[in-house]
Design goal:
Elements (H helix, E strand, L loop, with lengths): L2 E3 L3 H11 L5 H19 L5 E8 L2 E8 L3 E7 L3 H10 L4 E2 L1 E6 L6 E7 L7 E5 L2 E2 L3 H12 L5 E8 L1 H10 L4 E7 L2 E2 L5 E2 L5 H6 L4
Parallel strand pairs: 1-11, 4-5, 4-6, 4-8, 8-10, 9-10, 10-11
Antiparallel strand pairs: 2-3, 6-7, 12-13
The chain binds 1-O-pyrophosphono-5-O-phosphono-alpha-D-ribofuranose and uracil.
1-O-pyrophosphono-5-O-phosphono-alpha-D-ribofuranose binds next to strand 6, strand 9, helix 4 and helix 6.
Length: about 210
């Protein structure tokens, strides 16, 4: 499987708190943001850079600059919980939005909102916490590629093996970064053990 599981102890510590049924929405939101920082640092670890130099008060210093701008596309709704972390890390990031809703009977995604920035010249990170069947992520990447993005990575909090397989087979060029690959999916295509419905837990909309 073409997936990077971020084993950093802080990522694993935060993931367990997210899984915990007792974690209420305000804490769930805060932990999602902190975990996304750790995931993004790993997903951005090998971004291409070029040499540059600046004047310090005491002389000339060599360093690195990122080769290209950063774009991020959170998948609505749940991906919004990951957005602030990316904006904090990359303040000049361009943000696109993609609204996808998974049909509860067929588990297929339907699109209800698209607003994507220029991506031809950028590194694009797609944010969606749950990679379950992989239908939403694959549709999102399809749309983002059609809009011109040449370089895409998928950042998820939890993935199911089925979702990794689906995204990898439809888009083998897209690297997947996640804190865990869980056991599988239940009859309702929820990730097991997972953490439940991410969007509902993030926004306090649990029935
Ligand atoms: C969730 C999640 C993903 C999708 C994953 O969103 O955030 O987008 O399901 O499932 P898949 O891999 O089987 O496609 P949902 O459709 O529940 O919408 P929400 O974010 O508005 O809650
Ligand atoms: N969407 C979620 O929010 N959770 C899952 O386990 C699967 C899809």
């Amino acid at each position: 499987m073409d997936v990077t599981v971020v084993e950093h102890p802080l990522a694993q510590h935060l993931l367990l708190a997210l899984r915990d049924t007792g974690t209420e929405p305000s804490r769930f939101r805060a932990i999602t943001k902190r975990l996304t920082v750790v995931l993004m640092l790993e997903a951005a670890r090998d971004l291409p850079t070029h040499s540059a130099s600046v004047d310090t008060p005491l002389g000339r210093a060599e360093g690195m600059l990122l080769d290209k701008p950063i774009v991020t596309v959170p998948i609505l709704r749940a991906g919004l919980g990951m957005l602030d972390a990316v904006v904090d890390l990359f303040p000049s990031v361009r943000v696109g939005y993609l609204g996808l809703r998974r049909d509860e009977a067929t588990f297929r995604p339907s699109e209800y909102y698209v607003n994507l920035p220029r991506m031809e010249d950028a590194y694009t990170f797609v944010l969606d916490p749950m990679l379950a069947t992989g239908g939403s992520a694959s549709a999102a990447v399809e749309q983002i590629k059609a809009a011109g993005a040449p370089w895409i990575r998928m950042v998820a909090v939890v993935a199911a093996p089925e979702g990794v397989e689906k995204l990898h087979s439809s888009h083998p060029d897209v690297g997947i970064y996640t804190a865990a690959v869980d056991d599988g999916l239940d009859a309702n295509a929820y990730i097991v053990p997972g953490l439940g419905d991410f969007g509902d837990r993030l926004f306090g909309t649990e029935p």
